[in-house]
Structure formats: C-alpha cells, structure tokens
Amino acid sequence: MEPADSLFYLQQKEERRTPIAEQLLETLEKESDEASEKSSDFSALQGFKSAWYSLPSAEKKNFKEDEVSECFEEPLLGSLETDDVKSTHNGEAPLESREGENPSIPKEKCQDSIGKGESYKSQEENESTEKLEKLNKMVRVHSYEKIVDDASVAHIPLKSCASIGTNFENFEPNSIYSAIKLNNTENTAMMEEAWETLKKSYVYYKGLPVGTLAAMDPTAEALNYNQVFVRDFVPSGLACLMRPASAGGDPEIVKNFLLKTLHLQGWEKRIDNFTLGEGVMPASFKVLYDSHRQRETLVADFGGSAIGRVAPVDSGFWWIILLRSYTKCTHDYTLSEKPEVQRGMKLILNLCLSDGFDTFPTLLCADGCSMIDRRMGIYGYPIEIQALFYFALRCSRQMLKPERDGKELIKRIDKRITALSYHIRNYYWLDFTQLNNIYRYKTEEYSHTAVNKFNVIPESIPDWVFDFMPLRGGYLIGNVSPARMDFRWFLVGNCIAILSSLVTPAQATTIMDLIEERWEDLIGEMPLKIVYPALEGHDWRTVTGFDPKNTRWSYHNGGTWPALIWLLTAACIKTGRPQIAKRAIELLEQRLSKDGWPEYYDGKAGRYVGKQARRYQTWSISGYLVAKLMIENPANLLIISLEEDKRISKPKLTRSISF
Ligand code: GLC
Known about the structure:
By secondary structure, this protein is α+β, with helices and mostly antiparallel strands. It has 27 helices and 14 strands.
C-alpha cells in the first residue's frame, strides 16, 4: 500500500472518534500548524495532557523562587581546579536580581496534569484502550501526512528505500497500550531502587539540590565522577520533571541546576593564558566545603581539567534543551524570560552563529567535545553536535524574546535552521540507494553542479558498511567534511535528530527500521551501542592514539551505554514504534540492577560489565527511569521532543539538478 493510500484508508477508519480523541487530534493539529510559535508549542502540551487524562482538580505548588535566589555566591578564587577560572561577577549583578518578573504567569507543575495518568487502573482499562487506539491511529495519520508532504520535496534516494511506508501495514494499533500494560506491572522494585538511588545522588548547595553526582561507586576511585556533569544531569532532570508530583516529582532541582550552571557560565574561563568564549558552559561542577571560610564553594571544569583539555560543546546545547523541557513541563515562563537567562542563551548561540570562514552550516569541533570526551576520530562535524545544535536552535527559537538584539538573532537562527537541516538531511543521510550512489561517485568534479560535493573517494568507503547496510533502513552518518565521510553509526546523534525533527518523518522511520534490522549489532544483549562498529588494529592505533580505555568494543569505542535507553525510547515513541523500546528495556531490566547500574558494558554483544565501569552510575539509573516514565505515559515525550518545523519541511532550496 502506498503511504497516500494508507492515509486515505486511515482517514476513513477514523470517522468514529470519541470527543476526547477529537480534542486530542485538534491539539496535535494545532501544535503542528503553529510549531514555530512559542505560545502554541508550550500550550500544546497542556492541551495534549488534559485531553489524555481527565483530571480531578490538580494540586498546584508554587515554586519558592526566593529560596533559589539565595543560592548564589561569588566563587572561591584560586581553589583546586579554579586556579585558572576566575569570577567576572565580582559579586555584582546577581542573577536573581530581577527575579519575580511577570508574576501574573501561573507556575504550574506539569506533573499535576499528567500525574494522575501514571497508571492505567483496571476499571478504566476499556476506556483507556479505546482512547489509546484512537490516539495511535491519529498519531500515525498525523505523521504520515507529513511523510506524504515530504516526499515531494526532498529525498530522491528515500523514495526507493524499501523501508518507507512498508512498516505502516504492520502497524499494531494496540502497541502503545500493550507496552504500557506490561511495563506497569513489572519491575516496580527496580523502579523504586532507581528512585532511591537517584535521590541519594543529589548534590546540595546552601541547602538546595542543584544537580546529581555522576556516580556513587564506593569501590572505585572517584576521579571526576564525584561531580555534577551537565550532560549527565539531563536524564536526571527529565526524570524529576516527568515524575508525577504526587509521586515526588521535583522540577525545582532542574530550575536550581539551570540557574547554578548559568551562574558558572558567567565566570571568566581561562586555560593557561587563553580565555575561552563567554558563552561556554561547564562540563561539570562540584560543591566543596571551604573549612577556612566555613562556607560552601563551587568548582567548575570548562575543559581545563578534562582529558585532552577539550571544552564541552554539548553542554550549552543541553542546557538550552533542558531549559525548554523545564518550561514546557512546568509552564513556569518566568525562568526562561529572566534577562540573565535570555543573555545566557544568547551567549551560547553567539558562539555558534558568528560569521567565519565556514562553507557549511555545520559546527566545526575538536575531538572529545561531547559525550565521547576522548579522542575517537569525531573531530570535524560530528553528528551528535550537529543534532544538538539544531535542537538547541529550535528550542531557543521558542524561548528567545524578540526584544532589542533578539529580533536579529532570531533571524540568524531561522536561516541557520533551514541551512542546517538541508545540509544534514541531504549529505549525512545514508541508506542502500545512497550508499550505491556514493559507491559509483566520480571524483575531481569542480563546478557547483558536482554530484560528489565533498570529493569523497569511493575507495574510502569501509568494507563493513556494505554488509551493515540493510535494504530496509538508513541513518545519519557520523561526520561529513572534505573528502571524508565517517560512516560509523552514532546513537545519540541519530536519536536527537529524530527528537528535534532534524530528520524528516520518513527518515526517522527508516532509522527505526535500521535498528530493527541490525538489532544484534546495535543492541545485542544489552542496550545500547554508543557507536558501531569499533575501531580495531591500525585504525584504533591511529584514530584513538593507542587509547587503552577505548580498546575495541569497550567504553566509547563500540561499548554499550545503558544510559542511552531514554533517547532510544523517546525516538521509538515519536516514530510510533514503542515495541522496539520495550524490547530493549526488557533486556536492560534483566541485568542492570543486578550488575549494580554500571556505566557501560563491553564486548560485541554488550555482555560484560565494562572494564573500568563505575557502578551506581547516575545516568544509567535516570536514563532507565526516563524510559519507563515515557513508556508508561507517552505524553511525557512532548517534554523532550519537537514537532517538525513546517517552514523547513518545504524548503525554498532545491537540490542541484545533477543530484
Ligand atoms: C565519562 C563520559 C562522559 C560523562 C562522564 C561522567 O567521562 O565519557 O560522557 O559525562 O564520564 O559520567
């Protein structure tokens, strides 16, 4: 069946809608139509949730912002790693000084709207099943409308990819519901253990929780795992946002974290004699007790203490993304509207949007600048950073106020969003057809009509790709730069591209197809491979520089990271394939808690606890919780996902006729 026929078929079947389903569909349509406008996006969640659950009057809790305002202080100069990191605040212009602006905006916790739907009780089962069936159909109709839309504009290779449109016939309307039902009854003890351990990892500053420790393994040397890492905190923060208020949801820790890290951004960041950009966010921070001054103090790392001294390019993007999640979930707009928060966002964006020598809209990066924070051959234009960059651009587009220089910045953001999505959707995309095109590329083409735009020599395609590429499936490759395509699969970049709608709905579906087709390679016995395949032998020696921690199928080099389960789950729900996530979660549940929540697993199938893995790694715990919270309540996805930007689904740019 062609997608268009399927759409027609479903539209016919859809006639018997319940009033609640009507409301939900309207909300979804509204959200899609107005995706580019801040107000619609934020209100869509509210509508979605209220349509999903008919709630009794929800308990509302206002945030005590004045408590947060007390938590800032001038950092202690010259202590430990702070030696080359001095404050520029000098105690002046405290971040909280304009606190309380816009008091008319209600501060509601999203958990109030979604919390009551956390479990589907038996007396409501029939009704819920019906609602979910309708929802399922409508979500699919909704996304297929876009696939049909897209087909006219973009991906010639995609049209011939076997995966597109085919899984539609196999779609199981009850899939979301069965996932919910099964998971609701299982592993309560594991969930409880996870919540308890997460709580124990809280880091306090002046009595307020401001983040979570990276790991709490009493048997291993702390190294820097006793710090709050910005990227690691994201799943912890999401878990606290998604957890129903009645069960202990905690948006306040997220708010405190966002303000605290914003404060650290304000420090002058110096490494040797060189000063880093103003917008750089820390990779991590910790709270120390200065017994001499008898007060707590903060120590932050902006890359100066990291292996290889690389600044974390991902931190700022994650910060913006989490800020949007917080706002979307709590409806507390006062945080993102604070002048200092607006400024923080602008500083991050200025680092990425400034004019230079670039001929690509992608962001040039050093190796080790993100989750893979050691040399692994990701220098250049790594997909993880490009996808996070795009996600952060779209999030800030919703939150930036068009006042003063804001308008100009918004224009630059819009242009970059268009250019970046065109570039990634076209040049990073690899499926069977595209691989065949590259295999037959001619080289040395000079004009703008070149087909082989980056002069990639077909002989540089590694052998493994030909076996790995299924007929049904495709993905965004790891890196594209002159004469270089890194064909490796990276999970984070691909999932973020789905969540941010950097890829088209058709591409998102095709990525899911790949995961199914290559399950043994990408998931195996434990989810999930951070990258596939591993570098071995000569490649390992030259690319990693003989890194003993990144030997083949270990750690960042083809190791397995349970923390990534939340990203896969979100992508699965977004593409209407929760059963894939459920399968992965089941695998993880068999071992993760028994093994003491390790940081990573080793081996081709992910069978062995990682050689140097910390136990009680916080994001292994919170990643699992977020995955469960989304499977139990798929509406939670909206906290971390963006609908397609209608303006770029029909780009003005057209492909070169020679393509
Ligand atoms: C390791 C990981 C990094 C993570 C940190 C803390 O350095 O490579 O991604 O943020 O540990 O868990």
